[in-house]
Specification:
Blueprint: H1 6-26, H2 44-49, H3 52-59, E1 66-70, H4 78-85, E2 90-95, H5 98-111, E3 116-120, E4 134-140, H6 149-159, E5 160-171, H7 180-189, E6 193-199, E7 203-209
Parallel strand pairs: 1-2, 1-4, 2-3, 4-5
Antiparallel strand pairs: 5-7, 6-7
C-alpha cells in the first residue's frame, strides 16, 4: 500500500478547500485570477493540456479578422492571435484588471506588437464597445469567473457579426471550471448555435455561431 506523506496530503486538502471556497464566492462576486497569479494562466501545465497553437486553431482566426479576447490576462493568447490576423486584422484584449492589462502592454512593447488594443471593461455591462464588429470572440478559462454569465454571453452575441464564432475553452482543475452541459445551456439561452466540439469532459473547447 502506498503511503501518502502527511505534508503532501495536507497541502492537497488545503488547495482543494481553497478551490471550493473561491468557486463559491465567484458565483456571487467577480473574482478573476489576480495579476500576481498570472503565472498560473501562462505555464507549462496550461500549455500541455490546452496549448496556445491548439486553442487558436480551434478558435479559427484568419488573416484580416477582428477578434475579441475576453479575460485576456497578460496576453498568452492575444499576442499569437495578433500574428494570425496580420496584416489587416486586429485583436481587442479585454480585462477588468488594470494590473493584468499593464502586464499585457509590457509584452506588446517588448515584442513590437501593434495590432492589439487593450481595453479595461466588464463584459457584463451594457453598452461596452459597438455592436457586430467582431468575427470571433473567445473565453479561455474565463466564463466561470463571471457571476452574471448570461449577461456576458448576451453582450458577446451583440458584439459578434452575424455568422461570427464564439469559442469557449474550459480546463480542470481551474476552480471556475464550467461543464460542457452548463456552457451549452448558457449559450443556447443567449441565442448561439453549437457548431464544433473538441476534447474531453475535463478539458474541452466548444464553438458556437451567431445565426445570420
Amino acid at each position: 500500500m502506498i503511503k501518502i506523506p502527511k505534508v503532501f496530503l495536507g497541502l492537497l486538502l488545503a488547495l482543494t478547500g481553497i478551490s471550493f471556497i473561491w468557486r463559491y464566492i465567484s458565483r456571487r462576486k467577480q473574482m478573476p485570477c489576480p495579476a500576481w497569479l498570472s503565472w498560473m494562466l501562462d505555464n507549462r501545465f496550461t500549455e500541455t493540456v490546452a496549448g496556445t497553437k491548439v486553442t487558436l486553431h480551434r478558435i479559427g482566426l484568419l488573416p484580416g479578422e477582428r477578434g475579441l479576447d475576453i479575460g485576456c490576462g497578460s496576453g498568452r493568447l492575444s499576442l499569437p492571435a495578433a500574428q494570425r490576423v496580420t496584416p489587416a486584422g486586429e485583436i481587442v484584449a479585454l480585462d477588468i484588471q488594470p494590473a493584468m492589462l499593464g502586464k499585457l502592454q509590457q509584452r506588446l512593447k517588448t515584442n513590437g506588437v501593434t495590432n492589439v488594443t487593450p481595453v479595461k471593461a466588464d463584459i457584463t455591462k451594457p453598452g461596452i464597445l459597438s455592436g457586430e464588429q467582431f468575427d470571433r470572440v473567445w473565453l479561455v478559462t474565463v466564463l466561470g469567473e463571471i457571476p452574471d454569465q448570461l449577461a456576458a454571453l448576451q453582450n458577446i452575441h451583440r458584439l459578434l457579426k452575424p455568422g461570427g464564432t464564439l469559442s469557449i475553452t474550459e480546463i480542470l482543475p481551474d476552480p471556475h471550471f464550467q461543464s460542457q452541459a452548463t456552457v451549452m445551456w448558457l449559450c443556447w439561452q443567449a441565442g448561439f448555435v453549437p457548431t464544433q466540439k473538441w476534447g474531453t469532459a475535463f478539458v474541452f473547447t466548444l464553438n458556437f455561431t451567431k445565426p445570420e
